[in-house]
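ok so I'm stuck.
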Amino acid sequence: MKVFLEQSDFLRALNVATRSLMLKANLPILSNVLLRSSGKKLEIITTNLETACRVEVEAKVEREGGITVVGRALVEFISQLVGGTISVEKLGEELLISSGDFNARLSTMGPEEFPAIPKIVGGKRIELKPVDLINCVGKVAFCAAVDESRPILTGVLCQLSKKGLTLVATDGFRLGHAHIEVTAGADIGGVSFIIPSKAFSEVAKIVEEQKSVEGKEANVILLLSDDLNQAVFEVGRVEFTTRLIEGTYPAWDKLIPSNFSTSAKINKEELVRVIKIASIFARDSGNIIRMKLGVEGKAQFLTVSANTAQVGSSDSKIPFNLKGRGGEIAFNFRYLLEVLSVIDGEEVGFEMNESLNPGKITAASGSASFFHIIMPVRLQN
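replied:
not stuck anymore, here's the structure
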């Protein structure tokens, strides 16, 4: 194998491909990058057995072939070069990389030892707009569980219908819901699958990076295997493959109250400020803060408070627009700040019933399909 390519193109492709690279693996081959040249391109492939990434980069191919090298060393060396054309050549059991007066020889392993990346033949094909995928994944995926004790909750449920693709994620304490318009493939309908949240977040990052690099809004293609155990995202010259989580997702819609007795519109910036103030006094008491929605005199106020015996207490008031009877409810402040960080606009909507019923947070304006449900904490008098 011998190829010539631009250092910037090579580094950019490596940075994308290494999202599926294992730096410390029981199987040494999983710490390697597979390089494969043919035609007018160089393929860069990595896998951690859960996900795989394949990136194509333009190259002048003098000799076709394939080899694997330690990924970390390859990326670090290429990143230190100052640009221009570099040559990549297999010489015996080594890979020689040259750029002007800079040379490196990397140890190799044969391509036949690299795990095969399954291909989806046939299956189901869906097209999504890049901006929709980036926005919706960012607003939902962080709600998935981190704890592997319930693997099903570490994924994002995707429900495909004629109306589009609905995304849902929950860790049992909060739930995120969003909707993506499907530009092609919605006629499939009636299909549900669960994508690991970490993999979905990586896909969103890749889509955003490719959009900025290519400067165009090409649709993201999602391929699903017929048995719904594997998915491939095609983004320009990048293919990201991930396994799907098997199992039945909990009946998430039963967590959502059919109606609310209290609704409010609150300035997002002011709400974030009073929550951060209360968090100073909540860190040593389970991160719990209280929210009291009510009327004082003729004015409507939201009071956010917290107290800890070792630190002290605080309460802050901000004006807001209230409909309904109001009430008091307690939450983990971290859940509130996380959802507020992904909501667009100057105002947020908040709805509640009793203190032990879930609260609902939405953007005050915008699509009704995007919302978050947060489970409350029992109030202590």
